[in-house]
Amino acid sequence: MTSKREANINDKLETAISKGLAKLGTDLAADRVVVMEGEGQYAKNTYSWTLPGLASAQKEQQKIDVATLKVKLQEQLNHDSLFLTDQAEIAKRFPEIVAAYDSDYQLENVLLAQFYESGRVSGAVIVEDLDASLNMDFNNLIELTADFVGAKVMGRKLEQQRDTDVLTKLNDRHPYLAKLNYYKKVKASRSIGVAFMDLNGLKEANDELLISAGQIISQAFGRDYVYRVGGDEFVVLDDKSSRTEFESHCAAFEKALTQPASPSISIGAEWCPDSHYLREAVERADRKMRRQKNDFYKSHKRYR
After folding, report:
1. Least packed by Cβ within 10 Å: which of 49, 90, 107, 245?
2. φ and ψ of 18, to 5 deg
């Protein structure tokens, strides 16, 4: 699932990059322009422009082994771009990319420029079957586009990191407050499921327990709706589920807490039928959670 904020960021990013790829592809009279980004041992086609009338291969290029691809890109670190015109060499260097096309499609040339993150190649812009007879500086054009794409991708990552808790990888307090403010100001109202959680036994809480708590909450409610709002406090703001679905998520969460080695967590759940009063619903959920926490301490004297 993707949050509204992430979706908005992604939409703007995709629009900007799509325009850049279309401009490059049109200027070079190419068949395709794609952005390949590395993810672990694989690379995938994250953005793509295709000449109208040609089939896109984006879906087929989502899990390309880059063990050799990265080596080949790293070999070009002394060169900002690379232009290949030998079909046999193209097939040898990039067999996974070539294999994504129909056998009757001939990839006659490939122009690529890599972009970087912290001094390392993190992806590449690839132009396929451009018009080599054009009197243009191909290398300069693709290098400028690669710089542009790299900056946009880096901006996306920084934006995501800014709103993400470093330890648990969940949403942090910033997007949580933004959502509260959004629902206070927006005209249309909607219902929202609210859950406030706090780890029991603060003195014994540690990074491992916090990570475990975040995982259990995410599994029950969905990562996009979970926020770490304090040291050991988490809030769920579920604006997608029905009341029945939300209550089912709460039941799944409580069941998960009965499993061996699961952390002890107090929870207060509240159904908010009108999102204009979301803050009040959060406060009620907080009070419910604290009552449950007090009951926990009464029966677990060693935590007091």
Report:
1. 245
2. -60, -40
